[in-house]
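Help needed: design a sequence for this.
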């Protein structure tokens, strides 16, 4: 089975899983001798006189997420083949990585083989290495016998629970046994090394010297410079996440870092992986859109092609002053930790979802104006979602989504007068999804809440869900569509935001409204990406008074052409895990706080009820009855005319069970389903 790599701190996937071009037949067939300084202070030499039978050159980077993950794996291979005359040498050719950072990298990952610094990048050039992590295996006469990836566990956007091909280990084992390597060239996966531009093969023996990258050597009157244009450009589009202590795996507010990551930045921009944005133009305006104009992209390309000149330091923009800590309008009135004991994340294993239930001790209803989930360890937390779990017997019809830390999702401000209600006696549930980083990690995630007085609340914000579970995606189907709808929503509500959710086979998404029989697309996501769970906030919220239908189409790609597909030969159905699928839409809706709708008494929806007064009313009641019948057909497995919690999938238990179970007797009846359906469709 396959598991999602996640973001390894969110932005990691986008920058770490680029693919090199197809294996190049002009790769060097030999690696010349070299001597490099190491983290221990001793020089490490690779030469004819002291060559081992087999030498593995491991090109590594201190900030590249895959290089972090593979560091311990390389050490394990070095230990395994130590008695077979195999020598491992770690080589760092990144201009942005200092020797101190290399030392810490070796300590963090318990590496005992030599770790060296290729300051001139001459070894990377002569060996033909382009990415981290990438390995080049040479025999005792200097001939390259294998080059490429370490194994196949990681590919762009996904991670298998374990490798199915162990390319490096197999190559070494074959050479130790005196046999030819079956597959001597594979395509490396990882971060680009910032290599100097070369124009001919002769330049391999005379690469760009280190001094050419120093600021003093670069022109200050170039048309595009770091100080004049690029620093400001990065502030507009990148530095929000790519700065010290934030979710980006490296900073882009320092010239040396920017130079080292420039080639990789161009690649992910050209591949549309950065900036992370997936909504199509031409529909409803999205307030929190991340867009980088083509003119800015071209300016960055021009600067890189010109040799990345530094320019005049007087033109540097003022650093942006970001708010440290909580990104809330004020310090939180209440901070809640998921636990007093840190959760321990292993270095390199699959971690199942973790759930923590916290009692905030609310004796009265509390109204939340702003909420923020902050992970204690951004590198290891893929996502965290905080839900409201109301007390038994409580009146609460929202899904209960309170706040989230999710890849690609910014915290949205609620307008003045808008707030979420946490009923008295409720608990807060943290759903935690962790991903490994290559070394043991710990985490305590927190949520911060800013309260407001109920007298200040004009609108209650609730989260409703559209969930379609009845599907089976055939093997190899490249465009399998699943239709769903919100189904039941308050007619006096205002639609604030839309958040689609699918898994690894998610291909595209469309959300539409229907008014007077006319369909309108509010949101189109032509290239859905599970790594970036955007909550699309509408710049102009939609009044639902005259909306007849809120529906969506989720399209899945279960073919071989989907690079994130765990297994195109499988039939795929609904499930919580990422190798299964979901077709879900969360929408935030604001309703007037002082509603005149009965909220605690089940509504009689029988056809001859006295309160049926209009064709529209009759239609709503009949729709509610149909919904209840369909729901029971799907989930009443023992056909006892009630649905127990354990008859529902785990995700549905979180999202729907408590909202339907009005009397909190731990079972759902048809009357309760019909009452809820009727209320939501008013």
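Sure. Designed sequence:
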């Amino acid at each position: 089975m396959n598991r999602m790599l996640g973001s390894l701190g969110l932005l990691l996937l986008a920058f770490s899983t680029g693919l090199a071009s197809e294996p190049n037949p002009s790769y060097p067939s030999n690696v010349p001798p070299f001597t490099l300084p190491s983290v221990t202070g001793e020089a490490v030499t690779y030469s004819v006189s002291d060559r081992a039978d087999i030498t593995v050159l491991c090109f590594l980077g201190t900030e590249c997420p895959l290089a972090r993950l593979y560091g311990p794996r390389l050490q394990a291979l070095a230990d395994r083949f130590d008695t077979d005359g195999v020598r491992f040498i770690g080589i760092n050719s990144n201009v942005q990585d200092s020797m101190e950072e290399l030392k810490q990298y070796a300590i963090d990952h318990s590496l005992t083989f030599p770790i060296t610094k290729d300051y001139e990048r001459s070894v990377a050039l002569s060996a033909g290495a382009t990415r981290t992590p990438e390995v080049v295996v040479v025999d005792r006469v200097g001939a390259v016998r294998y080059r490429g990836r370490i194994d196949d566990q990681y590919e762009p956007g996904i991670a298998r629970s374990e490798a199915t091909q162990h390319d490096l280990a197999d190559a070494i084992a074959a050479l130790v046994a005196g046999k030819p390597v079956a597959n001597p060239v594979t395509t490396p996966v990882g971060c680009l090394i910032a290599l100097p531009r070369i124009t001919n093969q002769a330049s391999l023996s005379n690469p760009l010297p280190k001094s050419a990258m120093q600021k003093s050597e670069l022109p200050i009157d170039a048309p595009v410079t770091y100080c004049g244009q690029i620093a400001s450009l990065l502030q507009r589009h990148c530095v929000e996440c790519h700065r010290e202590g934030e979710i980006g795996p490296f900073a882009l507010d320092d010239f040396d870092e920017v130079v080292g990551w420039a080639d990789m930045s161009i690649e992910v921009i050209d591949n549309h992986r950065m900036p992370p944005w997936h909504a199509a133009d031409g529909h409803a305006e999205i307030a929190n859109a991340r867009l980088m104009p083509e003119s800015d992209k071209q300016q960055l390309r021009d600067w890189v092609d010109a040799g990345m000149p530094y320019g005049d330091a007087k033109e540097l923009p003022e650093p942006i002053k970001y708010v440290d800590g909580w990104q809330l309008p004020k310090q939180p009135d209440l901070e809640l930790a998921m636990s007093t004991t840190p959760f321990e994340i292993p270095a390199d294993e699959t971690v199942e979802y973790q759930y923590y239930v916290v009692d905030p001790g609310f004796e009265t209803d509390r109204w939340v104006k702003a909420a923020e989930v902050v992970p204690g360890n951004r590198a290891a937390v893929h996502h965290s979602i905080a839900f409201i779990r109301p007390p038994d017997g409580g009146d609460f019809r929202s899904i209960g989504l309170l706040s989230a830390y999710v890849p690609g999702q910014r915290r949205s401000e609620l307008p003045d007068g808008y707030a979420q209600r946490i009923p008295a006696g409720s608990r807060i549930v943290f759903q935690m999804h962790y991903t490994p980083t290559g070394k043991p990690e710990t985490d305590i995630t927190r949520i911060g809440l800013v309260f407001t007085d109920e007298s200040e609340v004009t609108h209650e914000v609730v989260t409703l869900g559209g969930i379609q579970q009845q599907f089976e995606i055939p093997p190899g189907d490249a465009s399998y569509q699943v239709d769903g709808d919100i189904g039941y929503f308050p007619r006096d509500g205002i639609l604030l935001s839309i958040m689609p959710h699918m898994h690894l086979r998610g291909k595209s998404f469309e959300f539409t409204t229907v008014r007077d029989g006319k369909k309108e697309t509010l949101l189109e996501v032509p290239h859905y990406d599970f790594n970036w769970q955007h909550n699309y906030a509408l710049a102009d919220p939609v009044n639902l008074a005259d909306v007849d239908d809120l529906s969506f189409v989720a399209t899945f790609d279960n073919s071989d052409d989907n690079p994130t597909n765990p297994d195109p030969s499988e039939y795929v159905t609904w499930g919580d895990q990422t190798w299964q699928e979901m077709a879900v839409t969360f929408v935030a809706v604001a309703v007037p706080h002082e509603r005149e709708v009965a909220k605690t008494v089940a509504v009689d929806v029988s056809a001859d009820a006295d309160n049926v007064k209009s064709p529209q009313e009759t239609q709503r009641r009949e729709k509610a009855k149909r919904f209840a019948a369909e729901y029971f057909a799907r989930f009443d497995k023992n056909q006892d005319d009630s649905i127990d919690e354990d008859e529902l999938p785990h995700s549905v238990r979180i999202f729907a069970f408590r909202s339907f179970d009005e009397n909190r007797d731990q079972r759902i009846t048809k009357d309760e389903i019909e009452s809820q359906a009727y209320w939501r469709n008013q």
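The first helix runs from residue 12 to 16.
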